[in-house]
Design brief:
Elements (H helix, E strand, L loop, with lengths): L1 H4 L3 H13 L6 H15 L6 E2 L2 E8 L2 E8 L5 E2 L26 H6 L9 H19 L2 H12 L7 H16 L4 H15 L4 H17 L8 H8 L7 H28 L11 H7 L10 H24 L3 H21 L7 H13 L2 H16 L10 H13 L4 H15 L6 H19 L3 H14 L8 H9 L4 H28 L4
């Protein structure tokens, strides 16, 4: 264990000199800035337009539900007084609460509501970061991990397959995504203790949920809504999708295991080797005979009970960000009280407060990235279909292009379009409401079944959540694992290419096989 975990000074110097002499990926915030600049430039060339909306009804779980979606035939450009399509170029700065280019960071940070991106996700991150700051301050997680490693020597290889499969199942069954952030806080120290790295943690938590999310047969936030809007029987085609979920889960697991084993053999090959130093340094003094008493057992019981309670609430009560955050905040208070009573790591009431603030502070960097990424959508006019925007014009133009293509190529372009569009609208239900009213009629026109159109939507929407920096959940999970998005891109691009190629084969094959 010591041989795996200890890194010599000479090794660090060698790694540092290697990194300094080679080209480095720009910081994530730099990348977001230039993407925002490109979005602002687009507003000088692409006219604005808007849709009208309509309400559609569908049956899910025997209950009739309705949803407001765009009317695909209602798109109209806005026109100037001389009758030419109107441009709405973004100024460098806008007063009176406007969204100029240099406003995008602030506007992105305060956009949304408590139910979602960006402000809701940011506050969610701060609350759970604070709560787990209290948990980590008790020392229970670190000591528990050491005991677990000691008791399971020789069976560590089972951790990754079991955890990956469970998270993939969670993504498939109830759309697990944001919940992975909290789990990653706990699992990351475990993975690094086992000789893996932060990237392995992101793979077995967040990436696994998105593999399940994308290939689900029953996800209420993507498949069910998309099928309802498209007029396809809700949860139909489950047999095919279950097989698809198994296949993609095995592919994701194989990719993760291959990388994890390589890192375990040669730690310096890790893409997050430098950032993992934070965890290695904080754990280097612990030993297998560390304290583990009744207080620690109560702390772990509180964590397990909270997680079980949250899963129950998500599945049976449709809890989302506000409710989940409240449960974890309560957990932090309870564990803080346990720490004070049992004097875990010398916990006092003031230390509980300090630990909460320090835990929340660790989330500030990913929170800033989440807000700035959300500002890109604002520069393009926002995600509202009835508000004239560049984004609506892009959506309409893409639909027109796809409608002119041969059927098999149209099916593939639907997948490509949904993958690209997810950069701007990362919400599965939101993207379904915007795109499926256009894609479903287009499918009829070009000879593609609506079931295939839904398949293209779910695969395109789900898998790109693994990559795009506009995904709040991805950026938050990378943040808690201290993995920079640039390092993540260096690692994950091969997996993304593989997923897209396989998804393309699945969509085109489904078309030729008449999947309906």
């Amino acid at each position: 264990m010591a041989a795996v975990m200890e890194i010599s000074t000479s090794d660090n110097k060698t790694l540092a000199s290697t990194q300094s002499s080679s080209w480095q990926m720009p910081d994530t915030l730099v990348i977001i800035f230039f993407v925002a600049l490109a979005a602002a430039i687009m507003t000088y060339f692409i006219p604005i337009g808007a849709f009208e909306t309509q309400e559609v009804s569908y049956v899910s779980d025997g209950i009739e539900k309705s949803r407001v979606v765009v009317d695909p035939s209602s798109f109209e450009y806005q026109y100037d007084v001389d009758g030419t399509p109107k441009l709405q170029p973004v100024a460098l700065f806008e007063g009176d609460g406007g969204a100029g280019f240099f406003n995008f960071a602030f506007e992105g940070l305060v956009s949304g509501s408590k139910w979602g991106s960006a402000i809701g996700v940011i506050m969610f991150m701060l609350v759970i970061g604070g709560s787990f700051g209290v948990v980590m301050a008790t020392g229970t997680i670190d000591n528990g991990i050491l005991r677990l490693i000691d008791k399971t020597r020789g069976n560590e290889v089972l951790f990754i397959p079991v955890i990956f499969s469970l998270f993939s199942l969670g993504g498939a069954v109830f759309g697990m995504g944001e919940e992975a952030i909290a789990f990653a806080i706990i699992i990351c120290p475990l993975m690094i203790r086992l000789g893996y790295d932060g990237i392995t943690t992101v793979m077995v938590t967040y990436v696994a949920t998105q593999v399940g999310f994308a290939s689900s047969w029953m996800n209420p936030f993507s498949v069910a809504i998309a099928q309802g809007i498209a007029g396809v029987p809700v949860l139909s085609g489950s047999g095919v999708r279950v097989v698809m979920w198994l296949g993609f889960t095995l592919i994701g697991l194989a990719f993760t295991m291959r990388y994890a084993n390589k890192v375990k053999r040669t730690p310096s090959l890790s893409y997050s080797f430098h950032s993992d130093a934070y965890f290695r340094e904080n754990q280097s003094k612990a030993s297998l005979d560390s304290r583990f008493n009744l207080g620690d057992i109560l702390v772990l019981t509180s964590i397990v009970a909270t997680i079980a309670w949250v899963i129950w609430g998500v599945v049976t009560r449709a809890w989302f960000i506000p409710e989940i955050a409240s449960q974890f905040f309560t957990m932090g208070i309870v564990i803080g009280a346990i720490g004070v009573v049992f004097k875990l790591n010398g916990m006092t009431v003031n230390k509980v407060a300090t630990s909460f603030k320090q835990g929340a502070a660790t989330m500030l960097e990913p929170a800033v990235l989440v807000g700035c990424a959300s500002g890109i959508l604002i520069l393009l006019g926002g995600g509202g279909p009835t508000e004239p925007s560049v984004l609506n014009s892009i959506l309409n133009s893409a639909g027109n292009v796809i409608g002119q293509l041969p059927n098999a190529l149209s099916a593939w372009f639907m997948l490509l379009f949904q993958s690209v569009f997810n950069f701007f609208v990362t919400s599965g239900s939101g993207q379904a409401a915007l795109t499926m009213p256009l894609m479903a009629p287009l499918a009829d026109i070009v000879g593609v079944t609506r079931q295939v159109a839904v398949l293209a939507f779910q695969l395109g929407d789900g898998f790109t959540n693994i990559l795009v920096p506009t995904s709040a959940s991805l950026m938050a999970t990378l943040g808690v694992c201290r993995v920079d998005w640039g390092d993540w891109l260096k690692f994950i691009w091969r997996f993304m290419v593989a997923l897209f190629v396989i998804s393309s084969i699945v969509v085109v094959s489904a078309h030729y096989l008449g999947f309906s």
